[in-house]
User: Which sequence fits this backbone?
């Protein structure tokens, strides 16, 4: 019998340790292999067609909050 409450903690949120994206065992997602393959193809196409660079970090020490890393994407010629 399916009992969805066994997947929830007291406040009604899902239990983090039970989340498995594609499942395991006999209930594994049939599309997992396809998704992994397509992700590889898309990533390869992005790397082939675009140059990905980042802003050089400062060489001096600065006190305060850290800045976010800026990534620049430009088309390859």
Assistant:
């Amino acid at each position: 019998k399916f009992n969805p409450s066994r997947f929830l903690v007291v406040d009604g949120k899902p239990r983090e340790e039970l989340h498995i994206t594609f499942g395991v065992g006999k209930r594994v997602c049939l599309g997992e292999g396809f998704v992994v393959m397509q992700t590889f193809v898309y990533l390869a196409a992005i790397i082939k067609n675009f140059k990905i660079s980042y802003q050089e970090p400062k060489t001096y020490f600065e006190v305060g909050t850290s800045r976010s890393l800026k990534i620049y994407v430009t088309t390859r010629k």
Notes: The chain has a mean pLDDT of 82. The first strand starts at residue 50 and ends at 54.
